[in-house]
Amino acid sequence: MQELGVSLYIKRDDMTGGVELGGNKVRKLEFLLADASANGNDSVVTIGGEQSNHCRATAAAARMIGMEPNLILRTRRANAVQQDFGFVGNILFDRMVGSTIFTCTPGEYGRIGSEALVKKVCEHLESIGKKPYGIPVGGSNGLGSWGYIKGVEELEAQWNQEEGSPALDHVVFACGSGGTAAGIALGLAMCESLSPQVHAVGVCDDPDYFYDYVAGIAEEMGLESDEGGTLDFIQQHMTAHQGKGLGYASSTPEELEFVSQFSLETGIALDPVYSGKALFHFVTKVLTANPDDYRGKNILFWHTGGALGMYDKGNDLSLDTIAPVYRLDVYGNDGGGRSITI
């Protein structure tokens, strides 16, 4: 990026809401849980992967407003229960706030579908006298995505305070469930003072899927396009990139090395599932494919959070090469190996 004279800015949504709520999900939850509260619901049900940032944020936010969290976690360890399920990363926070956790396998998730699974758990809770509010995977629907319309308004105000009023040329972010992409793409399409190219880097599925899904959310939000329909409108205002690599939540050694090196050079942690995978793909594939398109440009990376997911990848990061650990030989006994005498 230095060779191209690129200026990289980072919008730190990973710093919103503290450890419990940090990341992009809280923007959607602000709208979704307001709706649940207005409807008089006493509990919430949502769904995601085993280390879902969305599920963790939903569980914490629900407790903050007096609702009981119920989480459906997709995992290859679906038969592990209670103590066997562990306390790593997001799961620790899920359980600290007293979430009731239901598990399903990736195969069950694919065959039955996330919406149907949420509906089944909601029906179960209703049968025992609860009034649950179902939230889709990632909080990604027409209501939740309004959180990122407001997010773009926030970005516009922040960017226009930059000294010298630089142009914002590109906005890049990870795309998983599509709600963040819908809000950012629509928000920037309506923005009067900013007109960057929008890049949604998919960490699962493929670009055609995201175009269709984001268009569906846009229609749910009330978008009406006179020229070519909603899908064409989205494709005009957002480029979806294929950045999933080995697949959702699966990291290549090169991706993990990029995450480690980025932390070393900037002090900013990228998670391996979303932000790390997305920025890795954009820098190593998109920039290098058409370098002249980005030469001297201002690029904003919208960091959507997820650092707790690093705990699940810790053993794969090869951190000994950049952060060695030595035994301090305070008595001069020459312990050898990884020791230093003072």
UniProtKB/TrEMBL annotation:
List of catalytic residues: S52 (nucleophile)
Domain Tryptophan synthase beta chain-like PALP: 2-305
Gene3D superfamilies on file: 3.40.50.1100
Domain of life: Eukaryota
Alphabetic keyword roster: Pyridoxal phosphate
UniProt cross-references to SUPFAM superfamilies, sorted A to Z: Tryptophan synthase beta subunit-like PLP-dependent enzymes
Residues recorded with modification N6-(pyridoxal phosphate)lysine: K25
A single GO molecular function term of this UniProt record: D-cysteine desulfhydrase activity
Keyword Metal-binding among record annotations: no
UniProt xrefs under Pfam families: PALP (PF00291)
Family recorded in the similarity comment: Belongs to the ACC deaminase/D-cysteine desulfhydrase family.
Name of this protein: Tryptophan synthase beta chain-like PALP domain-containing protein
